[in-house]
Amino acid sequence: MNHRLVEIYDQLFHAAKTEIQDGQGLSIDSFLLKPAGDNRRGMTLLIRPSAEIMQALQRIQHQIQAVLPNQYFYPLNDLHFTVLSLVSCTPDFDAKELSLRKYIDLVQEAIFGHQAFQLNLRGLTMTRSAIMAQGFFPSGSLDHIRDHLRTVFHASDLYHTIDRRYKLETAHSTLIRFSNSVLNRAPLLPLIEQLRQIEIGAFPVTDLQLVSNDWYLRQQHTHLLATFPLH
Questions:
Q1: I want to staple 177 with a disulfide (CB 3.0 to 4.6 A). Which of 72, 140, 166, 203 is the partner?
Q2: Cα-flanking dihedrals φ and ψ of residue 162, to 5°?
Q3: Could you read off the pLDDT of 198-231 as tens digits, one per residue?
């Protein structure tokens, strides 16, 4: 078990729990209320879950939806785990204006020789804005891939925003975003507490995908740029 990941997920949950109990409430994503006006785009290297994991995550969504309706539940085909956001979503970004071949070559250089690994999903965590499935990976696997990506991109002259917002360490998948006010928040925290240790499943990560995308990785705005097999 990667104890650092356990610590991060626990900190996220307990911070959100304290804020909600102190009356700060949930953070509503205003862009989800007016999706037609959301032109934020970026470029992301990600992992797609297996079909079995997607079904398991959907069952959890349905369980939460029974007590927390009218929120944004990620469709199955939008579920993902971010490896790194190479270019964070900003208004009017267009991947076609970049030298895509150079980005693809740099990613290929960074992940060369890295082996496939297993991603284990257990339990949920949350922030005031979202509910997420907790992913765990063998020590050194995804960390090393991210570190090599950081090294090659920081040494290049290609535009990127890696780690500009925060340094990504986890392998979580966002299941739900709060898009509307919750009139009855009483069942929310007890339910997430109940699901904190639920065994969701595991799947092998055998390739990474480079995509251009919107903020939520919605299928209609996500375009596959390249696939990178792991050994």
A1: 72
A2: -55, 130
A3: 999 999 999 999 999 999 999 999 999 999 999 8
